[in-house]
Amino acid sequence: MTTAEIDLGALDHNYHQLRQLTYPTVKFLAVVKADAYGHGAIPVSKRLEELGADFLGVATVQEGIELRNGGIKKPILVLSGVYQEEVEAALDYHLTPMLYRWDIAEVLAAAASARGIKVPIHIKVDTGMGRIGVLFEEVPAFVNHVRKLENLEIEGIASHFSTADEKSASYAEEQLRRFLQVIEEMKKLGIHPPFYHIANSAAVVNLPAAQFTVVRPGIMLYGSYPSTSLRDKVSLRQVMCWKSRIADLKKVPTGYPISYGRTFVTQRPSLIAAIPVGYADGYNRLLSNRGEVLVKGKRTPVVGRVCMDWTMVDVTNISGVEVGEEVVLMGGQLGDEITPEEIGEWIGTNSYEILCSVGKRVQRIYKG
After folding, report:
1. What CATH number does residue 332 fall under?
2. What's the 3-state SS for the chain?
3. Catalytic residue at 93?
4. Residue 220 is part of which domain span?
5. Which of 15, 27, 33, 243 is an active site residue?
6. Does the active-site annotation cover 33?
7. Catalytic residue among 23, 187, 233, 260
8. 220 and 245 assigned to the same domain
């Protein structure tokens, strides 16, 4: 009864919008980690492959294996790198690792040597994200070590912006300056990899100078804006529409408590609809007494605590509501739309988490 409709036509639209903002010679790495941000990694990756994406980006080796088993042929970059115990699997499935640790480089080179092959790798540089990667000042020394490992081929140098979606570009520009410094150091060492990449979704729009030879859009492929300031700069269509149906309707009197903890008590005779979706499906418990859904194209509030399997909404002000009526939790209905960004604002998080949280027991239905 609860489904997530995935509009592949909207994915096409978003891909072409981002492609138009990318220089013609720049390669396109489509990020499909976290099950394509909850949209279904294999169907989405197949569509992106058909559209012409040059690479696909995943977070883990297991995600890469899933794509290969699903028939994906394009190069797959493992953005988070590989662990020692995953090296053989990465080679078996022709996955390209992001590299930022010397111990992993040695294990990878030894495994490649045993097979008599050269393995392409991308070196991850920390230009100010403070997460993973070789500190930008230490890159020359690290690369000098790596280049001695004959079975590793430095195919790319990559970094990641931490604030490309913010109105102030000052820190992103500082990261960009550091990345350019790394590129110059590579040239001095006589190393000229074909791929340099740092541009995420927001940077594709806000920082054209950061496109280099590859861009890595993620969230915007799925129709969500990393910042409201980007809405006027690119037209996107929401790919996922999360729907359910009213399973039960109940007339209750004034002063009647709804759901666990009696956190909502009716202030009038009310018509309460029970929706078979809850936090086990990814509908966050923080939406209790805070969220809204669409019924007959009208917004109506979530009342009481969201349960593991159920959510209640007050449909008193909507005439003609019946059991079986469509409810839109996220997406559009009859001219109105609830976006993942909006849901994120209600509970103090971002659209990324909202999309990735839609649970596995919510059936994905693909359109287009």
Report:
1. 2.40.37.10
2. CCEEEEEHHHHHHHHHHHHHCCCCCCEEEEECHHHHHHCCHHHHHHHHHHHCCCEEEECCHHHHHHHHHCCCCCCEEECCCCCHHHHHHHHHCCEEEEECCHHHHHHHHHHHHHHCCCEEEEEEEECCCCCCCEEHHHHHHHHHHHCCCCCEEEEEEECCCCCCCCCCCHHHHHHHHHHHHHHHHHHHCCCCCCEEEEECHHHHHHCHHHCCCEECCCHHHHCCCCCHHHCCCCCCCCCEEEEEECCEEEEECCCCEECHHHCEECCCCEEEEEECCCHHHCCCHHHCCCCEEEECCEEEEECCCCCCCCEEEECCCCCCCCCCCEEEEEEEECCEEECHHHHHHHHCCCHHHHHHHCCCCCEEEEEC
3. no
4. 8-226
5. 33
6. yes
7. 260
8. no
